[in-house]
Amino acid sequence: MLPTLSNPLYIRLHAGFAQWLRILNFEPTSQRDMPKMLTAFLIFLEANDCNHPHEISPEHLKSYFDHLHERPNQKQGGALSKNYIRKQLQVIRKFSRYLAESGQPGFAVKMRIKGKSSNIKSIFTLQEISRLYEATGDDVLGLRDKAILALYYGCGLRKNEGATIHVKDVLLDKGLVYVRKGKGYKERYVPLAGSSKTDLENYLHYARPHLAGEKKDDALLLSVNGKKLNGATSYERLQKLKTKAAISKPAGLHTLRHSIASHLLHSGMPLEQIQRFLGHSSMESTQIYTHLQHEQKI
Q1: In the prediction, which pLDDT does 120 show?
Q2: pLDDT of residue 119
Q3: Are residues 159 and 247 located together in one domain of the fold?
Q4: Rounded to whole angstroms, how far apart are CA atoms 295 and 298?
Q5: Is 280 marked active-site?
Q6: Does the annotation count 188 as an active-site position?
Q7: Catalytic one among 94, 208, 257, 258?
Q8: What is the pLDDT of residue 298?
Q9: Cα–Cα–Cα angle for 62, 58, 77, nearest 5°?
Q10: What pLDDT shows up at residue 201?
Q11: Is residue 79 domain-shared with residue 135, that is, in the same domain?
C-alpha cells in the first residue's frame, strides 16, 4: 500500500494547493498530476521530521532531489527521467508560490536541475504543416479545420485557450486574438496575420454562420450542432488531417503550439518575443526550444 499524508497541516495545504490550481485555470493534466507529485514531496518531508513549510531548508530540497535521482522508476524500471525530476521541481515551486500568494508561511526555492530535458515528444516540420493545410477541404468542416490550425499553430494557443476563444475575441481589424483565459488566468493578445487571419476570417464569414444556425453560442469554434466545439473533437479533426497528409508521428493540439514556437525560433525571432507570444510566465519554459531545434529537423 502506498504511503499517505498524516500531518493535518500538510493535508490542508495539499487540498488548498489543488483548489488553487483549479482556480487559476491550470491545464486539466496539471490539476491531476501536480497534487500527486506534491504528495510525494510532503511524505518525504514527514519522514524527515520536517512538519511545517517554514522549516523547509535548501538541505531538505537537496536531499529530496538526491532521493529522486536514486529512486527507481516504478512503472518502466531504471532511473527516473530528467523530465520527471524537473517536473517535480516545478511542482515544488508552484507550491511555494501558492503559499506566498495565500499569505501563509512558506519557503524559498533557489535550486535548479542541471542538464537539458524536454517533455516535447515531437513537432511538425514546416513541410508537414503545409501538408496538414493541404489536407483541409473547402467545405464548412474544412474551413473549420483551417480555423483550428490557425488558432493552435498560427497563434500558438494552448488546448484550453483555443477552446475558450469567443467570436468577439478575434479582432480582425487590429490583427489580434484576445486570450482571456490563459494559464493562471493571465490575459494576453496574440498577433494574427497572413494566412491565419485569412482562414479565421473565412471561417467567421462563411462556415460559422452555417454551423451556428439559429443557435446563439458565443464560442468561436462550433460543432455541427451549433454548440461549442470540445477539445476532443478538435483533436479528432487533427488526427484525420494527419492521416490524410500521411503523417504517422504521434501528435496532438499541443504539438501545433510546440511547432510554431520552434519554427519562430528557427526563423530568428528573439526568445523574449516567443515568450510573450506563447504566454510563458518564465523564460525557462521558453528556453526548451533552443535545444529542441537541434534535436529535430525543422
Answers
A1: 57
A2: 54
A3: yes
A4: 9
A5: yes
A6: no
A7: 257
A8: 45
A9: 20
A10: 97
A11: no
Handedness of CA 124, 89, 77, 287 (dihedral sign): positive
Domains in the chain, number = 2
**Helix count (H) and strand count (E) of the chain?**
14, 3
Active-site position among 82, 116, 181, 254: 254
Q: What is the pLDDT of residue 69?
A: 83
Query: Are 140 and 95 part of one and the same domain?
Result: no
Residue at 153 is within a domain: yes
Q: Do 272 and 138 belong to one domain?
A: yes
Containing structural domain, residue 262:
126-295
C-alpha cell at 20: 488553487
CA separation for the pair 220, 214 (Å, rounded): 15
Ordered mean pLDDT values, 10 residues apiece, the chain (298 residues): 82 95 84 92 93 93 89 64 84 93 91 61 88 96 97 92 93 94 77 94 96 90 92 92 94 90 88 86 69 49
CATH number at residue 151: 1.10.443.10
201 CB-contact burial (10 Å; exposed 0-12 / middle 13-18 / buried 19+):
middle
Residue 35 and residue 133 share a domain: no
Element (H, E) at 189: strand 188-191
183 catalytic residue (yes or no): yes
Which of the following is catalytic: 87, 146, 197, 280?
Answer: 280
Active-site residue identified among 94, 183, 258, 263: 183
User: Of these residues, 14, 86, 158, 237, which one is catalytic?
Assistant: 158
